[in-house]
Amino acid sequence: MRPQRFPQANRLLGPPADMRDNCVALSVYADEEQLISMWQPDDDDIQRLRDGGAIWIYVVGQSHPPVMVTTQHPFEPPKKE
Fold it and tell me: Is the pTM higher than 0.85?
């Protein structure tokens, strides 16, 4: 999966100095409570998910902040069924 830019993004987080070879800048929407980023699966990711694969989250460091993973667009109301 690759991070993507999106219209509501209002901040760009650069990679840590010691990770510039392994990390790209991340576009985020930031307010007082949260940072939201958008990640787009590529064809291989989609196939792995179709085959029952999982989504893995890597957090660098020794503590883990609260996170949420969703496919619901955070800037659009949920679609009614």
Answer: no
Query: What are the structure tokens assigned to 43, written together?
Result: 């064809």
Give yes or no for a contact between 69 and 37, defined as CB atoms under 8 angstroms apart. no
Tell me the pLDDT tens digit for each residue of 20-78: 898 899 999 999 999 999 999 999 999 999 999 999 998 888 888 899 999 889 999 88
- For residues 3 and 27, the answer to whether their CB atoms sit within 8 Å is yes
Q: Which residues does 11 contact at the CB level (< 8 Å), separation at least 6?
A: 27, 28, 29, 30, 35
Residue 27 is encoded by which pair of tokens?
Answer: 């576009």
- The domain of 31 spans 1-81
- How many structural domains comprise the chain? 1
**C-alpha pair distances (Å), 51 with each of 6, 39, 48, 76:** 28, 20, 5, 29
